[in-house]
Amino acid sequence: MAALRIAFEAPDSPGNSAAIGRKPIDFAHLSVQTMGDKALEIEVLQLFARQARQIMKDIVEGEGTARAQAAHRLKGAALAVGAVDVAKTAGAIEHDPSDMSLPGDLSAAVLEAELFILKLCR
């Protein structure tokens, strides 16, 4: 139910699940990466959301080295768009792929970023 509430709030709503004053995407970083092109920002964010969902499957289903490699790919993609929380959690999985509590945390961070991106695109 909370995910539905998040999905229909404005991206800058105080009820957002992100830490107070912090959005799931660092727009200053993203703007530098896209040279301020707003259409490109949206395109890159949509690509990231699709890629993150595919890589999450690899992380959840993978083991050991395969999980660490998938987490590394997701960390790189997240850093490219400014999804700092996703990158941080993916980095933790890359460092310790055997910690089974981390994929759940990563899934929550990815979901938060995806919902935020969806709100921006509507």
How would you characterize this protein structure?
The chain is an all-alpha fold and 122 residues long. The chain has one domain (2-9, 25-121): Four Helix Bundle (Hemerythrin (Met), subunit A). Helix content is 71%, strand content 0%. The two termini are 20 Å apart.
Topology overview:
Layout: H1 2-7, H2 27-33, H3 38-61, H4 64-81, H5 84-95, H6 102-121
Helix pairs in contact: 3-4, 3-6, 4-5, 5-6
CATH topology: Four Helix Bundle (Hemerythrin (Met), subunit A)
Please identify, by name, the CATH architecture.
Up-down Bundle
Helix/sheet category: mainly alpha
Amount of helix: over 70%
Report, as a whole number of angstroms, the end-to-end distance.
20 Å
Strand content: under 5%
List keywords for this structure.
single chain; 122 residues; Four Helix Bundle (Hemerythrin (Met), subunit A); mainly alpha; 0% strand; disordered N terminus
Short description:
With 122 residues, the protein is mainly α. Helix content is 71%, strand content 0%.
